[in-house]
Amino acid sequence: MSGNKRLEEVKSLVSAHPDFPKKGVLFRNIFPVLRDVHGFKTLCDLIVEHIKSTSPDVELIVGLDSRGFLFGPIIAQLLGIGFAPVRKSGKLPGETYKVSYKLEYGEDSFEIEKSSIKQDQKILIIDDLIATGGSMKAACELVEKAGGNILQCFVVIELNCLNGRDKVNKPVHSLLTY
């Protein structure tokens, strides 16, 4: 099956929920893809193929809390490399680097263990979605603070109308755009 047909297959599994989590928001739900064994395998295959063709020398996958954890470890394992989590503040043991970022209503923080990334290690950051770009921008700052060299940021879904990629100073690739 061609790449476009496989991509359309995955896209057909993503559900849309109007007015969730609040009025005026159209929520794109990735979980139906994960429930479909063939669809999830297809999604993982597409991600791995993209990474191998664009960043074959990636050394570590960094996944964002929490949906980046759904893809990150699996993709890392398929590529034969390690995985490091970026978590919300206070969730990781030991010494961490911390970066704060703005949300629509307030502020939040991400952390990564100081021992997670080697100096100049080639990193791919992965998450399920980019909307306004705040969390991906913060993750990039955090990985750079830890000494990593970001090759690209990868998301399954991008909400184009929110221009999130404009906040990120690294290459952003999305499989599905809405």
TrEMBL record:
Transferase found in the keyword field: yes
Subcellular location, record wording: Cytoplasm
This protein's UniProt keywords: Cytoplasm, Glycosyltransferase, Purine salvage, Transferase
Domain Phosphoribosyltransferase: 47-161
Family indicated by similarity: Belongs to the purine/pyrimidine phosphoribosyltransferase family.
PANTHER family referenced in this protein's UniProt entry, alphabetically: ADENINE PHOSPHORIBOSYLTRANSFERASE
Protein name per Swiss-Prot or TrEMBL: Adenine phosphoribosyltransferase
Organism encoding this protein: Lottia gigantea
